Amino acid sequence: MTLTDEKLAPIFADLVNRNQGEVEFHQALNEVLSSLGRVIGKHPDYAEKGLIERICEPERQIMFRVPWVDDAGQVQINRGFRVEFNSALGPFKGGLRFHPSVTLGIVKFLGFEQVFKNALTGMPIGGGKGGADFDPKGRSEMEVMRFCQSYMTELYRHIGEYTDVPAGDIGVGQREIGFMFGQYKRITNRYESGVLTGKGLTWGGSRVRKEATGYGAVYFIREMLKSRGEDFAGKRVVVSGSGNVAIYAMEKAAEFGGKVVACSDSDGVIYDEGGIDLELLKEIKEVRRGRVEKYVALRGNGAHFVKNGCIWDAECDIAIPAATQNELTGRDARALVKNGVVAVGEGANMPCTPEAVRVFMDANILFGPGKATNAGGVATSALEMQQNASRDSWTFEKTEDRLAAIMIAIHDRCASTADEYGLPGNYVAGANIAGFLRVAEAMDALGVV
Ligand code: GLU
């Protein structure tokens, strides 16, 4: 990874040096800094005031032991994290990821992305991220509950409605948020609804939050397609993953007339030329917490499963990587381009490698970066905070209308910023620059803090 800008290259080299071994964080830093050369040209004072170095340094990083007892009576130890990255625009905001791959470097990359993503939503939220190297796979509900309670027993002292507001991410859904909210309420003796988002509807949650990241991604892709006079109707859509983001991206893509033919999990890929049956998939994933392979036997009409298959070899017009970071490589991107893909929207955080992004850009494929495309989830979290603050609860229609308007605004902001900086159609640069400018302006106004 090299940066050529003479002001930014030494900053990046220094960041790599002082965050050693954190390769995903370096990748996220490199991607944003690569877009900022033109910004410094227009705003030299931002560089002089050290705003670039400051925005790349988390305000606070918390790491803690999470001890718990499994069903066999064995003591288990995990590591918990919360990186409070930037609070210039509002309380730290961002999800918690429970996955064995979670390290400080992963949480820092996610927290850094979140700062710009949250800024793009136009809402008053700073950026942060957290999680643990806990693997929920194969754990009983009681084990998950004990883990969540132990995790919150430390985390509670760092968060609050006006301080830091976590939500879900990989491995953390409504069930886990419920266990954590219950523990927070018990420890603090406060029914502080606004301390966590992604809550259930009967205990302070917002309609559309569950669907928001996937729906939002498809709204964003629809706007990109519109810019070239196209739409979803009749297009073949492939979505990697089968979690919350993937399921609701598929649902909205189908509603817009797309034909969703494949999705996946870490075991393999399911293909269904008849169009993925989403009610069946939801039953398998959300109710039974099962693996996608089950879909084939239950569907039974020509759907098939390829163990360890590569979903990006499937022919499609629209690709939505919605599983995890660096899941779509340069090779995969070339396969997609060869097969005629017209648009790619990142549903996950940083799912495309830098080489893959370059392949899409060089081929003039519409490419929506995650910090813009998947911002609908956190934007709806901010709507949940709004409803909590006013002790109100909106209808599905009103909430979805707000989400759609936010996604259109994000798209337009990215597109117009890219135009303004002489890079028309470059949503990566548009998102990085627009996000940076909003945070930098607020940081500048708040002084050296
Ligand atoms: N984890 C989600 C994200 O990557 C949502 C965060 C939130 O709602 O705070 O944006």
Chart the SSEs and their pairings:
Elements: H1 8-18, H2 23-33, H3 37-42, H4 44-48, H5 51-55, E1 60-69, E2 75-86, E3 92-98, H6 104-120, E4 127-132, H7 141-155, E5 164-167, H8 174-188, H9 209-226, E6 236-240, H10 244-255, E7 259-265, E8 268-271, H11 278-287, H12 294-299, E9 304-307, E10 318-321, H13 330-338, E11 343-345, H14 354-362, E12 366-368, H15 370-373, H16 376-389, H17 396-420, H18 427-445
Parallel strand pairs: 3-4, 3-5, 6-7, 6-10, 10-11, 11-12
Antiparallel strand pairs: 1-2, 2-4, 7-8, 8-9
Bound molecules: glutamic acid (GLU).
Glutamic acid (GLU) binds next to β3 and α16.
Report on the architecture of this protein:
The protein is of the alpha/beta class. It folds into three domains: 1-57 and 427-449, Glutamate Dehydrogenase, Chain A, domain 3, CATH 1.10.285.10; 60-191, Leucine Dehydrogenase, chain A, domain 1 (Rossmann fold, 3-Layer(aba) Sandwich), CATH 3.40.50.10860; 211-364, NAD(P)-binding Rossmann-like Domain (Rossmann fold, 3-Layer(aba) Sandwich), CATH 3.40.50. The chain is 47% helix and 15% strand. The protein has helices at 8-18, 23-33, 37-42, 44-48, 51-55, 104-120, 141-155, 174-188, 209-226, 244-255, 278-287, 294-299, 330-338, 354-362, 370-373, 376-389, 396-420, 427-445; strands at residues 60-69, 75-86, 92-98, 127-132, 164-167, 236-240, 259-265, 268-271, 304-307, 318-321, 343-345, 366-368. The strands form two sheets. Strands 9-8-7-6-10-11-12 form a seven-stranded mixed beta sheet, sandwiched between helices. Strands 1-2-4-3-5 form a five-stranded mixed beta sheet. Helix 14 links the parallel strand 11 and strand 12. Helix 6 (104-120) packs across helix 18 (427-445) and helix 17 packs across helix 18. The longest helix has 25 residues, at 396-420. Bound molecules: glutamic acid.
